[in-house]
Specification:
Strand order of the largest sheet: 10-11-12-9-3-13
Distance between the termini: 38 Å
Radius of gyration: 21 Å
Strand content: 25-35%
Number of domains: 3
Shape: globular
Number of strands: 19
CATH superfamily of the largest domain: Probable tRNA modification gtpase trme, domain 1
Order of helices and strands: HEEHEEHEEEHEEHEEEHEHHEEEEEE
CATH architecture of the largest domain: 2-Layer Sandwich
Number of helices: 8
Low-confidence stretches: none
C-alpha cells in the first residue's frame, strides 16, 4: 500500500472526510470506500433513486491540434475520426502486441480536440504509451486536465430528473455517450451522459475549485453519496469490467469479450496486425459471467475447476444485493463458456458449483 502521506487527494477529499467516509488507498489515491450508511444502502440508493460518486481520481487527458484525431486513431481502438463532435466512445487501449493497457472513453470535443478519460491506476501507463508518440507529432498538443478539472458521477433512475432541476440546458437533452457544456447549479461544467453502474446518469466535469460546491448542491437535491465499495458492486452487477481485475496488459480484447469495442481496421493502427492475428487464431479462454449454485462468494484470483482440472480463474466476484445472488466473472476454457455450463470455484479450499449465465447480470431494462 502506498504511504498515506504520498497518496494523492481529489478536490473533494475534505468533503469526504467531513462526512465520515472510510478512506482507502485506490490507484495511488486516498478515496472513500463507503459512508456511514454502508455499501448495501449506497447500492440501493443508486438502483432506486440516485447516488453521487467522486471519480476525480480518473485521468482527463486533452489532445488538441490539426493532427490530434489522426494521431489518436493510430493509438486507440476507437475510430476517433468516425465520431461526430460532442460524441463519445468506450474502447480499449492496446499496446503493439494487443495487450490491454487500459479501457477508456474518448470524447470528440471539437473538430481538432479530444478528451480521453482513463483509469486512475493506469494513468501513468497511458501517458507513457501516448505522450512520447504525441511529442513526435508536431500537430498534436497534450494537456493533463486532471488537477484543474474534477469529475462527479450522478447515477440512478432519477438522475436525469434531479439534474434537470439544477441544469438549465436541460440535462435530459444530452443523449447517451454525448458531451455538452452546461451550467450545473450555476457552475460552468462539461456533462457527459456516461457512467459505470448500469443506470442512467451523467459524469459532470466542473472546475476543481468548485467541485465541493457542486457536490453539496447535489446532496441538497436528495442524491446520496456513494463510495468505491458500492461502485464495484454496481459495475459488477451490470457486467462491466475493471482493469487490473478482469483484464490486464496480459489479456487481449477478444478473450476479454470486448471485441465490439475494438476497432482494428484504421490504417496504421498500432495494434492492428497483432489483434487481427489474435482474431483469426481465436483464444483458448474467454470471459464469462456466472452465478454460484452452491453457497459461497467468488473472489478475485480464485481457481475455476472442472473434474479436478484447473480450467480458469475468477477475476471479480461479490454478493449482489440487487439480485440477492452471489455472482462473478472470470476466464474459463472456451468449451465451458456456453450458457448453462457448470464448473466449480475453489472458495477457500472448498469447491462450490457455479453456472455460466448471460451478461449483464442486471439491466435496468429487464429488472
Amino acid at each position: 500500500m502506498a504511504d498515506e502521506q504520498a497518496l494523492k487527494k481529489t478536490a473533494l477529499h475534505l468533503t469526504h472526510v467531513a462526512a465520515g467516509a472510510r478512506m482507502v488507498e485506490f490507484g495511488g489515491w486516498d478515496m472513500p470506500v463507503q459512508y456511514a450508511n454502508g455499501i448495501i444502502s449506497e447500492v440501493r440508493a443508486v438502483r432506486e433513486n440516485a447516488g453521487i460518486f467522486d471519480v476525480s481520481h480518473m485521468a482527463r487527458f486533452q489532445f488538441v491540434g490539426p493532427e490530434a484525431v489522426a494521431f489518436l486513431d493510430r493509438m486507440l481502438a476507437a475510430d476517433v475520426a468516425g465520431l461526430q463532435q460532442g460524441r463519445a466512445r468506450y474502447h480499449v487501449i492496446c499496446n503493439e502486441r494487443g495487450g490491454i493497457i487500459d479501457d477508456a472513453i474518448v470524447y470528440r470535443v471539437t473538430e481538432d480536440q479530444c478528451l480521453l478519460v482513463a483509469n486512475a491506476g493506469n494513468a501513468d501507463a497511458v501517458k507513457e504509451f501516448l505522450i512520447p508518440a504525441a511529442q513526435q507529432n508536431g500537430g498534436v498538443f497534450f494537456a493533463d486536465l486532471s488537477e484543474d478539472v474534477a469529475m462527479i458521477a450522478v447515477q440512478g433512475p432519477n438522475a436525469v430528473e434531479i439534474l434537470d432541476r439544477i441544469c438549465p440546458l436541460p440535462a435530459s437533452s444530452v443523449r447517451p455517450f454525448r458531451l455538452r457544456r452546461a451550467e450545473v447549479a450555476g457552475i460552468p461544467s462539461r456533462i457527459a451522459r456516461t457512467g459505470y453502474t448500469g443506470e442512467d446518469g451523467f459524469e459532470i466535469m466542473p472546475p476543481s475549485d468548485r467541485a465541493a460546491e457542486l457536490w453539496r448542491a447535489l446532496e441538497d437535491e436528495g442524491v446520496a453519496p456513494a463510495g468505491l465499495g458500492a461502485r464495484d458492486v454496481l459495475r459488477l452487477e451490470a457486467g462491466l469490467m475493471l482493469h487490473g481485475n478482469d483484464m490486464t496488459v496480459e489479456n487481449n480484447p477478444y478473450e476479454a469479450g470486448l471485441e465490439r469495442f475494438t476497432h482494428i481496421d484504421t490504417p496504421g493502427y498500432i495494434a492492428g496486425d497483432a489483434l487481427k492475428a489474435v482474431k483469426n487464431a481465436g483464444t483458448a479462454r474467454v470471459m464469462v459471467g456466472f452465478n454460484m449454485v452452491g453457497r459461497g462468494i467468488p473472489r478475485h484470483r480464485q481457481a475455476v475447476m472442472k473434474g479436478g482440472v484447473h480450467v480458469g480463474i475468477v477475476t471479480s466476484g461479490t454478493h449482489s444485493p440487487t439480485l440477492d445472488a452471489n455472482i462473478g466473472m472470470g476466464y474459463v476454457d472456451r468449451d465451458l463458456s456456453n450458457e448453462g455450463s457448470r464448473f466449480e470455484i475453489d472458495v477457500r479450499g472448498r469447491l462450490v458449483e457455479a453456472e455460466v449465465v448471460p451478461l449483464p447480470f442486471y439491466s435496468r431494462k429487464r429488472v
